[in-house]
Each structure stands twice: as structure tokens, then as C-alpha cells.
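Run log, item B.
One chain of 317 residues. Sequence copied directly from the ordering sheet:
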Amino acid sequence: MAEQPKNSYKFSHKHLLGLADYTADDIRYVLEQAKNFREILDRPVPKVPTLRDKTIVNLFYENSTRTRLSFELAQKRMGADVVNFSTSSSSVKKGESLKDTIQNISSMKIDMVVVRHESPGVPHFLTRVVDAAIINAGDGAHEHPTQALLDMFTMQQLYPDLAGKNIAIIGDISHSRVVRSNIIGLRKLGANVVVCGPKTFMPVNVESLGVDVSYDLEETLGWCDIAMALRIQLERQDEGTELFPSIREYHQKFGITRKHLEKYPNFTVMHPGPVNRGVEMESEVADSDRSIILSQVTNGVAVRMAILYLLSGGTRI
């Protein structure tokens, strides 16, 4: 295992655009900082004034509940001034371009932008038109780095060293930004990753990301330490293209059931949310003591606090 970064570790990033830009030590350092913020969340008053002088804009062009609320809660827990941008009530509806929107917002003297957009590459574009720190909260089917970081943080609560651990990601591999970020991060930390799902949900050359591919759920669940199920991304599929016969058949072939928990007693269940009960997994699985889905949600606030802290140039908590 690579040596863990020490307190003197130099974190040099201004943005979080994707985990492809972060080294294994960068990732470990973020996760180590998240431990401190996770402890803060357990205090009677779970707040620190770390971002008291910072203004952060949440720029969400796509619908979101968990990610947006998680970021907003993290920002308020740290004392930041928070501005939430909604496309439904903005000049975007009048035809304003993304560049004009962000430059108008930037002229109001902001420090950070958390952006979610349906088009891959938008966070990278924003770094070229504004001086604020940019955090990618999901860009198309490209990356979702803070989700992957919170997933890895949650895994580390079970396995502090992920090197050599077997992680299965099951479901709609082609259309999920969570998959790409998790594969990149987990591989950098030395984990073994298998992606499992219907052939129609597998991207071309997925093996080039350093993963194995399985079309057999039983084999996969018997192999893995952690099984992460994914939501079917119907909104990202081409209209009129049928990638599977029916929801019922998908669940029969790739849904995790109570019988799987009984047959394979060693794997832990995760899901980035929202869970479609009766599709990716049965309700009994989501609510079982083998599921750490709610821990993912709580840990998401701590991890996002850590990212906000580091990208703001923080030197103390």
C-alpha cells in the first residue's frame, strides 16, 4: 500500500472537475480530511465557520435532490453565503447562454461554483471563463467525482485499505457518470472492479478503464466484497431505443434480492440513489443490515465539506 499523505501534504488543486485529474494521494488526502468533518457532523452543534467569508453558487441545470441538498447543507454547516441558481426561474428560459449566465453571476464576486449540467465538459469550460473554483456535481454521463469520493469514504469505513478489495458495480454502466468516477478512484486506490449488467448497458471498450466485465449476477455477487447497484438512467437513453425488454425482466436477471443475501452472506450493498425498489434491488435488501445506503447519504455531507474546505485554500478547521 502507498504511504498515506501526512499533515504536511500539499494539496495543489483549485478545482474538482473529475477524479481523472487527482492522484491516489490526492484522493487519500481528501478522504482523510473528510474524517474530520464526519466527526463534526456528530457534534451537538455540527457547524464550523471555515467558509464564513466565502460566497458559493450552486448552478444546477439538471434536476437534483440529494446532491444539491448535500452541497447546500455542507456549505451552510461551514458558514458560507449560499446562492442557489434555478434554470426554471432564470434568464436561461429567455435564451441566455451558459457563458453569459456564469459571467453575470461571477461579476457579483463569488468564490466557488458547484455545477451540474447535462453536457459533458461544462465544468472544464467554466474554468476558462470565470476565476472562481469549480466543483463538478455531475456533467452528463462523464463524471460525478464527489459521489465517487463519498462512496469510497463509505467503503473505507468497512475496509480502511481498499487495495485488493473486490467491488462490483451493477446496472446501467453506459449512462452512469457515477461509474466512471468510481472506476477511476477505486482503481487508483488499488481495488479490483467488475462491472455487471446487460450487454446493451455496457459501453464500448469498457475494459480499457481497467475493469472486468460480467453478465452473470450470481457469479458477481459470489465474488465481490461490495455490490453497488445503479439506477437505470432512462432519461439519458435515446428516445425510442429499447435497451432491455422490461423492468420486470431486468429485475429478474440483475436485481439484488433477499435470496441473494442468504446465498452470498459476505457482500455489502450500496447504491448512489435514488433507489428504484423492486428494480435494482428488493426493498428487503435496501433496508437490510447489509445495506449502507443511508451511510452514503450522511457521508456525502462530510466529503463535500472536505472538498469545499480544500478548494477554498483552507489550512484549519
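Observations after the first pass:
- The chain has a mean pLDDT of 90.
- The CA atoms of residues 7 and 254 lie 43 Å apart.
Flagged for discussion on Thursday.
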